[in-house]
Write a structure and sequence with these properties.
- With 102 residues, this protein is an all-alpha fold.
- 68% of the residues lie in helices and 0% in strands.
- It folds into two domains: 46 residues, no CATH class; 32 residues.
- The radius of gyration is 26 Å and the shape is elongated.
Length: 102
């Protein structure tokens, strides 16, 4: 059972690191066995739904994640930039200046 607990704790610690939380500073503050116990307890709370993690143990969605939404936004922005650039090149600059500067 101890091996299973350690395995789960190490897996969870790996998940924490992938979320961008560095564990090395944590290990300086606390001992490894204590850190493993805390990580294991935290995981148990998540699995028992005593600790809610949106998207993990509650409020999950069956839809595909919107991982490409940023790419779509980038494409839209690039299209708008090209269009604005074309408009600026083709417009009558003197008329723009007279309109904007009274």
């Amino acid at each position: 059972m101890t091996d299973e607990i350690e395995k789960k704790a190490l897996e969870y610690m790996g998940k924490i690191e992938t979320m961008g939380v560095p564990l090395k500073p944590l290990s300086r503050v606390t001992s490894r066995p204590r850190l493993l116990r805390v990580a294991y307890q935290y995981q148990k709370e998540i699995e028992a739904k005593k600790r809610i993690v949106v998207g993990i143990n509650q409020f999950k969605t069956e839809e595909e994640p919107l991982h490409d939404s940023f790419e779509s936004i980038r494409r839209q922005n690039n299209t708008r930039r090209r269009k604005l650039s074309r408009i600026k090149k083709e417009r009558d600059q003197e008329r723009v200046r007279k309109t904007l500067v009274p």
